[in-house]
Write a structure and sequence with these properties.
Length: 173
């Protein structure tokens, strides 16, 4: 992100809400947190001395983000206006793209999701063995929301809540 102040301005113009106004994080960088037009919260980072994730797409590291949205068209419009994202994938699973590279997924809100759960972003971490990592997580106090389960032709995943209630997912390709 080149300018989180501009992200905050664009988010408000697109109908979102600035939750945390752009602020410096010492010399590491600058950040802002915004809520999109369906209620999902996302943070923007403008690097200073800390560029961001240096390790990705490996076990234990960030590999994917996925938005669960109650209004896919509204979400696509917001993220296009604020971040300039293009869209690929299909109608059932649009994929956010930057410079033609897929960076995140957008999933329609699942039927039966409790009404008190807001639209949200889910972060996926790589796993060498999803089942072993789920066991380790539950041994450490996490609870399983979904899985472990196979996604045919793609891999294996699970969604957990950490002991403080934050959701995250594991994925093994």
């Amino acid at each position: 992100m080149d300018d989180v102040d501009e992200v905050a301005r664009k988010a408000e113009s697109a109908g979102g809400t600035v939750i945390v106004a752009p602020m410096d994080v010492m010399t590491a960088g600058r950040m802002a947190i915004v809520m999109d037009t369906t209620g999902a919260v996302i943070a923007a980072w403008q690097p200073g001395q800390h560029l961001g994730a240096k390790l990705v797409n490996e076990p234990g590291a960030f590999i994917w983000s996925e938005l669960s949205s109650s209004d896919v068209a509204k979400s696509k419009a917001f993220y296009s206006a604020v971040f300039g994202w293009g869209w690929g994938g299909g109608d059932d699973y649009p994929e956010a793209q930057v410079s033609g590279r897929t960076i995140a997924g957008l999933m329609p809100r699942r039927p039966g999701m409790p009404a008190d759960v807001p639209d949200n972003w889910l972060v996926y971490f790589g796993a060498a063995d999803v089942d072993a990592d789920v066991k380790k997580g539950t041994d450490l106090g996490a609870s399983v929301i979904a899985g472990p389960a196979d996604i045919p032709g793609t891999g294996r995943f699970a969604v957990l809540l950490d002991p403080q209630g934050a959701a995250f997912a594991l994925f093994q390709s």
